[in-house]
Structures are given as C-alpha cells and as structure tokens.
Specification:
By secondary structure, the protein is mainly beta. Helices cover 11% and strands 32% of the residues. It is built from one helix and five strands. The chain has a three-stranded antiparallel β-sheet, with no helix packed on it. A two-stranded antiparallel sheet has the order 1-2. The radius of gyration is 15 Å and the shape is globular. The model has no long low-confidence stretch (mean pLDDT 92).
Length: 75
C-alpha cells in the first residue's frame, strides 16, 4: 500500500477515532492482537526468506548483497 492509498482509505473515518494495527499472535488459538498505534516513522526494510516477509533493519544492520527499501512504518 502506498501512503496516498492509506490517506484515501482513512478519509472516510472519524478524525478523532483511535488507530490500532492488527497482527496474528502465532499462538494455538490464532488470536489476532490489535495494539494502539504509538508512532509513525520512516524505516529501512529488506526481505527475509526465513520469515517470508520484510524485516525492519535497526541502525547499521545491513548486507551489501541485499536490496534495502525506505518505507513508512506504523508501530
């Protein structure tokens, strides 16, 4: 999703509504957790074959062999 698409999606919601994000807990009961968004920031991600998705890099963690992308992160 692009930032412009997120903005368009959010336009129909109450501006004063709290914002949460959902993710699977990975537990036996297949619980979906939904903590409140605490911050939005720009981060760097790369794909990880082990997890099958992107991972957020912290600080100077990188490998010259991988593709890095700057993204907006909602935490």
């Amino acid at each position: 999703m692009k930032v412009s698409e997120l903005i368009a999606e959010l336009e129909c919601y109450d501006e004063d509504a709290d914002v949460h994000f959902a993710y699977g807990a990975g537990d036996y009961w297949h619980t979906t957790l939904a903590p409140k968004v605490s911050r939005v920031f720009t981060g760097t991600v790369t794909n990880t074959d082990y997890h099958g998705t992107d991972k957020l890099l912290d600080g100077d963690e990188h490998d010259d062999e991988v593709v890095l992308r700057r993204v907006v992160v909602i935490e």
